Amino acid sequence: MSTSSARKPRTSLSTSGIANSSTAAPAARGRVIFVGTGPGDPDLLTLGAIAALGEANAVILDTERQREILKHPSIKLADGAAVSILGLSEAGKPLPPSARAKTVIKHAGAGSRVVRLVSGDPFLDNAVSDEAAACVRGGVDFEVVPGVSSLTAVPEYAGVALNNAGGVHFVSATEGRFAKTAAAEWVSAATLVVSTRVGMVNDFVDVATSVGREAAEPALITLHGGSTEQISIATTLGNVAAEVDSAAGEPSDLIHITLGAAVQDRDALSWYETKPLFGWRVLVPRTKDQAVAMTARLRTYGAHSEEVPTISVEPPRSPQQMDKAVRGLVEGRYEWVAFTSVNAVRAVREKFEQYGLDARAFSGLKVAAVGETTSAALQAWGIEADLVPSEEQSSAGLAAEWPPYDEVLDPINRVFLPRADIATETLSAALTELGWEVEDVTAYRTVRAAPPAAPVREAIKTGKFDAVVFTSSSTVRNLVGIAGKPHTTTIIAAIGPATAKTCEEHGLRVDVVASKPSALELADALAGFAANRRDTLVAEGQPVTKPSQRKTSRRRSS
Q: Within 10 Å of residue 51's Cβ, how many Cβ atoms?
């Protein structure tokens, strides 16, 4: 924010009421937006999909798996947006179009904008055209946001080059049975790509062989295509049903089957399943709502992250100190405001909203942020930080670049420092030495979170997680306190030397330390470690296994 030579009280703007019109406005019409999400990778969402989700009053999912899409950092649901799942019928099968439409119409009936998330492309991969027609009959308008079709994307995620297939035929059949009359043209296709459900696989194999596809023909089965849980199984058409059965997919799960010579070249072109962290189960012990950037970066390397809250953020026991500080900020009491965490930004923003204030109250103030993540939280509020350390992103790094107080250039010498109750006084002491008067205010408290569910605790202790990423010393102490020590086979990654030292003090062998104290740098460092590990195993002629697959009786030292 810009500085000013004279400080004036800052006041928020108010709005006046609008006179009632003598003519009543027409009732708002509900609207349904069918949004294609692609095969499973949230990074394939279109800008149109992101915009539609941001404006939705209600979001309806096909399956529970689609909740992962809503965790993508680009998605910001409106306050109060309801999220629900269509679910299955009593027989465990997908609901028919009429039943799905009834649910959608119910949500849109009160003039709401309803986003109906659809896997793949709405009108190509799924039978939503009948659902859309039912909406029209019910008096609800609809529109479509196309998505990446799973018919082309899933084979590509599995390493199949369809352009080298010599002619491709696509089949999308997610309901009913396969008809031999419609399948007659399958025979002439050099490559056949089929999107169906696990419960329909036997029927597909019977029809495919009956119309002339050879039982010995190369086949590739892909479950959960495009997600970090993707499974690809190379087999033959005759063995497809048995392989699907052993893979233990649910009858309603979508499955892709690719037939033809093109699948034989996938080993050389497999790019997704050879990512350094592909299939790794990574534990992210952080404050729940601060794990988004970390898990998003880990997903780009193929990891499936599970967040375990170790710290709960709560308001200060007494709000008077924060109330006084916010009043002082509005009245022009401070020259600087220093934010040392995302939680500090959130605490001040929530207090502002209680008073009916917004980011305009920062006009004329100088704002500092401890690092890029905190700076991004300020930008989301509409505030651009004047000072972000260019080297070490920490309180010490911020203090090293903070300008000394100058009686001529600085009208006021006070700094507002909202922080956690357990924060160190590193920054406050450094600013005092530079001539500033620091008002150190407890903006929030951090307390140890409740223990995770029993299955998660068991997975931590028995080595079912491939890696744990620690972003602070407190996450180390709290995770060990609420869930126990990770197993010796689990890779331990620490955000910096101080966190690594705390790990060692708790008997944990540290395998990875980030080069910079950043959550994204930590994710990159873990991926680099995994890539080197993979290359070593390949060079030694060993199978590339995950850490959770290499059990040992050796325990971590205590």
A: 13
Beta carbons of 368 and 339 less than 8 angstroms apart = yes
> Above 70 in pLDDT, residue 28?
no
Residue 62 burial (CB count, 10 A)? 21
Calculated CA dihedral for residues 69, 70, 71, 74, nearest 10 degrees: 90
Using only C-alpha atoms, the chain has a radius of gyration, in whole angstroms, of 28
How many Cβ atoms are within 10 Å of 41's Cβ, its own excluded? 22
Task: Report pLDDT digits (tens) over 223-268.
Answer: 999 998 899 999 999 999 999 998 877 888 889 999 998 898 888 8
* Beta bridge partners of residue 233, listed in sequence order: 221
**Beta sheet of 467-470, edge-to-edge order:** 304-307, 281-284, 467-470, 491-494, 512-513
3-state SS assignment for residue 375? helix
Instruction: Give the three-class secondary structure for 183.
Output: helix
pLDDT of residue 27: 56
Structure token pair of residue 459 = 């997975």
DSSP helix/strand/coil, 66: helix
CA distances from 36 to 150, 336, 499 (A): 10, 46, 42
Residue with tokens 């007494």: 318
Does residue 281 contact residue 466 with C-beta atoms inside 8 Å? yes
pLDDT confidence band for 319 (50 / 70 / 90): confident
How far apart CA 184 and CA 176 sit, in angstroms, is 18
If one counts every other C-beta atom within 10 angstroms of the C-beta of residue 403, the result is 13
Question: pLDDT (tens digit, 9 = 90+) per residue, 389-402?
Answer: 987 777 888 999 99
Neighbours of 248 (CB within 10 A): 9
Note whether 148 and 155 are within 8 A (CB): no
Provide the 3-class DSSP secondary structure of residue 534. Answer: helix
- Give the per-residue pLDDT at 25: 52
**CB of 302 closer than 8 Å to CB of 295:** no
Please give the angle made by the CA atoms of 117, 121 and 126, to the nearest 5 degrees.
80
Element (H, E) at 282: strand 281-284
Q: Is residue 64 a contact partner of residue 250, using CB atoms and an 8 Å limit?
A: no
Looking at the chain, the number of H-run helices and the number of E-run strands are: 19, 20
Q: If we measure between CA atoms, which residue out of 311, 285, 502 comes closest to residue 420?
A: 311
In tens, the pLDDT along 323-373 reads 999 999 988 999 999 998 888 999 999 999 998 998 898 988 999 998 887
